[in-house]
Amino acid sequence: MSEQSRRKFIKHIGSTAALLGIGQLAAIAKEKEQVQLLQPEKRISPNDKIRIACVGMGIMGFGDVQTAIKVPGVEFVGAADLYDGHLARIKEEFGPQVYTTRDYRELLKRKDIDAIIVATPDHWHDTIAIAAMEAGKAVYCEKPMVQQIEEGHRVIEAQQRTKAVFQVGSQRVSSVALAEARKRYQAGEIGQLSVVEARMDRHSALGAWQYSIPTDASPATVDFDTFLKDTAKMPFDPVRFFRWRNYQAYGTGIPGDLFVHLISGLHFITGSLGPTAVYASGNLVQWKDGRDVPDTVVAIFDYPETKEHAAFQMTLRVNFADGSGGGEYTRFIGTEGVLELGWNDFKIKKHKLPEAPGYGGWDTYNTFTKAQQAAYVKQYNAKYPGSNGNPVQSSTAYAAPQGYDDRLEHFTNFFDSMRTGKAVVEDAVFGLRAAGPALLSNQSYFSKKLMHWDPVAMKIV
Questions:
Q1: Where is the Gfo/Idh/MocA-like oxidoreductase N-terminal domain (predicted)?
Q2: 3-class SS of residue 349
Q3: d(Cα 169, Cα 426) in Å, to the nearest integer?
Q4: Which helix (H) or strand (E) holds 127?
Q5: How far apart are CA 382 and CA 157, in angstroms?
Q6: How confident is the model at residue 47 (pLDDT cuts 50, 70, 90)?
Q7: Share of the chain above pLDDT 70, in %
Q8: Does residue 124 have a pLDDT over 80?
Q9: Whether the Cβ atoms of residue 348 and residue 333 lie closer than 8 Å to each other
Q10: What is the CATH number of domain 3-41+176-354+391-404+428-460?
C-alpha cells in the first residue's frame, strides 16, 4: 500500500471499525486467516406502535411479515392476496384478528394501517406502491422496484411528491457486513477496482421457480383476472399464477430476481450510479416447462469513470442448469487485492506487487549470456536493493455474528425512518438505479443488442 493509500485507509478506518473486539476472534485453519466479527448497531425503538399490512402473501410476503414483526412495536393488522388459501393461511399463522381481503385498496382506506409491504408479482409493484404513498402510507416494496423503467420514474415522482417513507427490499444493503466492506473498499484496501465478477447458480426445481401449486387452485379460489392486470387476457392458468416468475408478462426473469441483488450491493459499496452499457446473452437449457424466460443468463456491464471510482467491468452469471450443484460468489478485484463478498460476511485477500519486477523464470533473462546475466543482476540489485521481487500477500475475513439477519436489519432501518425521519438506506432513486441495469439485461437478451444507459438520468440512451 502506498503512503497516500495508507493515510486514506487510516482516515476511513481509524477507530470507527465496527468490530466486536479488534483482536482475533476465530481462525480458519485451512487458510490461516483471522476472522473479525462485525457488531451490528444497537437501537432502542420508541414505544409508539407501527401497524403494517402486506399486499401479496406468497413466499416473500410471508417471509417479510414474519421478519417485520420481530421489530419492537410493529404489529401486523392486514393483508391482501388473490388466492383464498393464502388468506386462510394468514389466519393460521398470525391469528384470526388479522384483516384479510382480496382487494388491496381496502387496506389503503384503513386509518389504522401505517405502512404497506408490497410483495406481489413484479408487474403490480408500481401501481400498489404509488397508490399506497398517495394514501399516506409508508411503503416497503420488494425488489425489483419496478417491472418497466418508466414505472420507476413514476414511483420516484410519487415519493418525492408525497414525501412518503419508501424503501426497496434488497435487504443486503442493510447488512453490517456490506457496511464494513464499503468502508474497507473506500479505504483503498484492494487498490483500484478493475473487475467485478459474480455468479449465483442453482440446480433444483424449486430454485428454478417450479413452485408447488395447491390442489384447490381454481377460478373460484383465485382472482386470476385481477392478477393479469393489463397483460394479455387468458383463461385461468394456475401455473402462471403460482409460478409467475417464469413469464415476461408478470416477472423480470433472472435479472430482476437475482441480478438486482448483486447490482444493489455493488452500488452500495462503490457509490456508483450505474453502468453506461449492458450486454446479455443466455439460453433456455433445462427448464423447458412453458416458461418464456431463459434459465441461464450472462451479462457484461461497463461502468464509466466517475469521481467515486475508476472505470471497471462487471460480469454477472446465473445458471439454473448447473450440474455441479450450484453455488455463488461475488468478487471485487482490484490492483492490490480482491474483496470476496458473501451474504453477511466477506474476505479481503491482498496480492500487492512489489516495485521490483523480479527476473528469471519465464523471462528473457535466461536468454542472456552469462556475462550479460551478471551485469544485469548487478544493475538490478543496485536499483532494487534487498528486494526479492515477491508480491506481498495476506488474507483477512469478516463476518456478522451467528444468527444475524440482514432482512431484519433492513426492516429495522425502514421503521427507524418512519419513527425518526432519517433517510432510508434504499430509496426509490437507488431502487431504479439497481433495477434499471437488470431490466436492460432482459432487453439486451431478447433484442440481442447492446443497450446504452444514462445512469444519472436513469434512461435508455
A1: 50-169
A2: strand
A3: 8
A4: helix 125-134
A5: 65
A6: low
A7: 91
A8: yes
A9: no
A10: 3.30.360.10
pLDDT of residue 9: 43
Cβ-contact 368, 234 below 8 angstroms = no
> How many whole angstroms separate alpha carbon 294 and alpha carbon 271?
30
Q: Whole-angstrom Cα distance, residue 271 to residue 344?
A: 19
> Which residues are CB-neighbours of 144 under 8 A, at least 6 positions away?
122, 125, 252, 256, 257, 260, 431, 434, 435, 438, 439
Collapsing DSSP to helix, strand or coil, 116 comes out as strand
Q: Is the pLDDT of residue 143 over 80?
A: yes
Contact 203, 323 (CB under 8 A): yes
In percent, the amount of the chain with pLDDT more than 90 equals 87
pLDDT confidence tier of residue 42, bands split at 50, 70 and 90 = low
> pLDDT grade, residue 25 (50/70/90)?
very low
What per-residue confidence (pLDDT) applies to 6? 45
Q: What is 50-172's CATH number, 1.25.40.10, 3.40.50.620, 3.40.50.720, 3.20.20.140?
A: 3.40.50.720
Residue type, 389: G
Residue intervals of the chain classified under CATH 3.30.360.10 are: 3-41+176-354+391-404+428-460
Locate cell 399486499: which residue?
55
Q: What is the DSSP string of 381-400?
A: HHHSTT---PPEEEEEEEEP
Nearest C-alpha neighbor of 321 from the set 294, 288, 286? 286
Residue intervals of the chain classified under CATH 3.40.50.720 are: 50-172
- What are the b/e assignments for 394-404, b being 16+ CB within 10 Å? ebbbbbbeeeb
How far apart (Å, rounded) are the C-alpha atoms in residues 127 and 155?
Answer: 9
Tens of pLDDT, residue by residue over 50-80, are 999 999 999 999 999 999 999 999 999 999 9
Per-residue pLDDT, averaged over 297-314, amounts to: 97
Q: Alpha carbon of 246 to those of 122, 127, 176, 239: distances in Å?
A: 12, 21, 33, 9
Cβ 269 vs Cβ 189: under 8 Å = no
Report the alpha-carbon distance of residue 325 to residue 330 in Å, rounded: 18
Question: What is the distance between the alpha carbons of residues 412 and 25, in angstroms, rounded to a whole number?
Answer: 27
Average pLDDT of every residue of the chain: 92
Burial of 295 (0-12, 13-18, 19+ CB in 10 A): buried
DSSP letters for 56-110: --SHHHHHHHHHHTTSTTEEEEEEE-SBHHHHHHHHHHH-TTSEEES-HHHHHH-
